[in-house]
Design a protein that fits this description.
By secondary structure, the chain is α/β, with parallel strands linked by helices. It has 9 helices and 7 strands, in the order H-H-H-E-E-H-E-H-E-H-E-H-E-H-E-H. Helix 1 packs across helix 2 and helix 1 packs across helix 3.
């Protein structure tokens, strides 16, 4: 892989903006031959001519225009980087990587984010996924904590510290046509169509336990772990 020499690129960038090597020389406080050499080296590495000379001025070739466009973005990001790290709050800010099961209510994740920001200034990233994946990421130290509705397996639990954050009630939603099921609940749920979480989720196990305890059999028509899909299909009366 050929690496771009950003020193060469910077000399090209200043020259392109100034319109001539002589003006670039005055801005960079280096001799004109040095600038010419830097630009020539860049052209050779790119295998493209970047300037054409017309009279005393320099004009960008089509390749030069493309390189200038990228240069503007590169050095703009560089300036932005310097401003960010010079910010006095930057060194005080922690980066927190949170893993959240995709079945966890978004309101709980939101509450965790607000709580973390109240403790100290921090930049927060949220990664959603399945339990096995998130716990592997936690073990590899790629994330700092996992918000889960089930603990790690017994063999894995010794590797982690866990704390109960909340008890989340389970609520069953339906369209108005199922309003009659409120009477004689939960027995009224017998043989009714349900959109259920996937089998591997803790919520699904809790629901199955609830139905078994109450000797209820429901008609599982759709299984999905995505709560957004659950709500969309539920609103349609699926």
């Amino acid at each position: 892989m050929t690496w771009l020499n950003y020193h060469h690129l910077y000399y090209f960038w200043i020259t392109a903006k100034e319109g001539s090597i002589s003006r670039a020389s005055g801005k960079l406080l280096v001799g004109q031959p040095t600038i010419s050499t830097q630009i020539k080296n860049l052209e050779e590495s790119l295998n493209q001519s970047l300037f054409t000379r017309k009279g005393r001025g320099l004009h960008l070739t089509e390749a030069g225009k493309v390189v200038l466009d990228y240069s503007n973005q590169i050095f703009s990001l560089g300036n932005e980087l310097m401003e960010v790290v010079k910010d006095e709050n930057f060194s005080k800010r922690s980066n927190v990587q949170i893993g959240a099961l995709d079945s966890i209510p978004k309101s709980l994740v939101q509450s965790m984010i607000h709580s973390a920001q109240k403790i100290a200034p921090c930049a927060i990233s949220v990664l959603e996924g399945g339990g096995d994946y998130l716990f592997r990421e936690l073990q590899a130290h790629r994330i700092d904590l996992v918000i889960s509705n089930f603990p790690p397996t017994i063999g894995e639990s010794k590797k982690y510290f866990s704390r109960l954050l909340a008890n989340i009630p389970i609520t069953i939603f339906s369209t108005k046509k199922f309003k009659f099921l409120r009477r004689k609940f939960p027995k009224s749920l017998q043989d009714q169509p349900f959109i259920m979480p996937s089998l591997h989720s803790k919520l699904r196990h809790d629901l199955n336990h609830f139905f078994q305890t109450n000797k209820i059999t429901v008609d599982v028509v759709i299984e999905t772990q995505d709560t957004s899909i659950q709500k969309l299909l539920g609103n349609e009366g699926m």
